[in-house]
Amino acid sequence: MEDEVDRLVAAWRRERPDLDVEPLEVLSRVSRLARHLDRARRLAFTEIGLESWEFDVLTALRRAGTPYQLSPGQLLTQTLVTSGTMTNRIDRLAEKRLVERLPDPSDRRGVLVRLTPAGQDRADRALAGLLAQERTILGELTQAQRAELASLLRQLTAPFDNIPT
What we know:
mainly alpha; Arc Repressor Mutant, subunit A; 2 domains; 3-stranded antiparallel sheet; 7 helices; 3 strands; 10% strand
């Protein structure tokens, strides 16, 4: 089976035989897959009225477990945005009544962001929709192939995820 990357690589090999274009065989496919995944995310989230950034914040809170709350700093760490961006996002989610701000009992000046029941419902439905989209994308692979691919991708991404900030 041939794909667009095969055609791209063949063209570069023809036009630039002096270059080793082998990295394109893997990373161009990863890049194309990322675009397909982004479309799948948007589709899953649009169906229930969420933006990708809203999903990221709501699911960070959902994964925290009962009582589904984190400090803004913890949300920053999990979503990799600036403090100003996070403040804006929390404000917007609070306006939609998907999260609420509570005083932090361990820090008089601090706040905690808690998922509301409506936020939990929206996060759960968005995750289920996303997983259905992703299962479709992976549908051609066996369980063993998915496990092998996950392991190989972990080897590529772990060094980036473990860089001290």
